[in-house]
Amino acid sequence: MRDRYRGCLLGGAVGDALGAGIEFSSLVEIRREYGPAGVTGYVPCYGRSCAITDDTQMTLFTAEGLLDGLEGRKVITQVADDLYDVFACGREPSSQRYPA
Q: Are 72 and 84 in contact (CB under 8 A)?
């Protein structure tokens, strides 16, 4: 079962990295830039190839919080603080566990 969860997290991160560079582009813009087939590989984003976005960061924070909660740890507070740092304040997560 753990392999399935890992596969889901990895698949989500890969999909996020594939789409990061065109996340806010329309289909017309994508086809104009990359041709009729659209994107067929990683598109540079944030100054590098294969960059993940806040979507993957949020997923990892949430998964870690769920696991820590199941194991009875208090770390879920740190996960909540990280989410607040990133999404409410626009700054890097204080724990720096999952840099973009």
A: no
Cα–Cα dist 83/50, whole Å: 22
66: tokens are 């769920």
CB atoms within 10 A of CB 69: 13
82 three-state secondary structure: helix
Distance CA 17, CA 15 (A): 5
Cα–Cα distance for residue pair 6/10, rounded to 1 Å: 6
pLDDT in tens, 41-89: 888 888 888 888 889 988 887 887 777 776 666 666 666 776 777 766 6
Pair of tokens at residue 87: 């999404």
Could you tell me if 75 and 65 are in contact, meaning their C-beta atoms sit under 8 angstroms apart?
yes
Is residue 59 within 8 A of residue 23, CB to CB? The reply is: no
